[in-house]
Fold this sequence. Notes:
Blueprint: H1 2-16, E1 28-31, E2 36-39, E3 43-44, E4 47-48, E5 60-63, E6 68-71, E7 79-81, E8 162-163, E9 168-172, E10 176-181, E11 184-190
Parallel strand pairs: 4-5
Antiparallel strand pairs: 1-2, 2-3, 5-6, 6-7, 8-9, 9-10, 10-11
Amino acid sequence: MRLLHRILEKILNKILGNITIDYIRVRRIAIGSATLYIKSDRISFPSLTSDPTEYQAGDLWFNASDSRLKYSPDGTAVSSLAPAPVSTGDIADGAVTSAKIANGAVTSDKIADSAVTSAKIADGAVTDAKITGPISPSKIGEGDLNLGTGTLTCGQVNVGDILLKYGWKIVEKPDRLLILKDNRIVLEIPAQAPQEA
């Protein structure tokens, strides 16, 4: 039986060397000492533990250590077919640029709570239209409110001492109001009882 097999093999090799086969129907073809199988519904690759040391453009193989089908597009570089869906581990840091993200694609539910830090917000990027008041006093630190040449318009201001630009200071006491310049009392306004009609 083995001898007959070898004879048939030599005959087939001789025939294949002289003709072009357009169609062949077999149950299974074993190639490379029965390591690669071409079956009717799939191709079974051998499980390699590392990438081949030599390959040409278009070569395809299965690397079991990476659990990936790999190929060489140009005979020098090696690329892999990532499983779907693509996980964050399959994307190199900095690989996804803003040009690759469609406008409006990142919605609020895709951003984790507290994920956007102040370092990620450009200076001057938060406009008045993006702020819904009121802003609590705990969010305004001492010295943080600077109106510049603007005007503060409100119903009522509850403050302690008032410090003015050129060293003037207005201090409220339970029974009087003091106006100071460079911490010296310039004017004292006592509280007066209402005059009887």
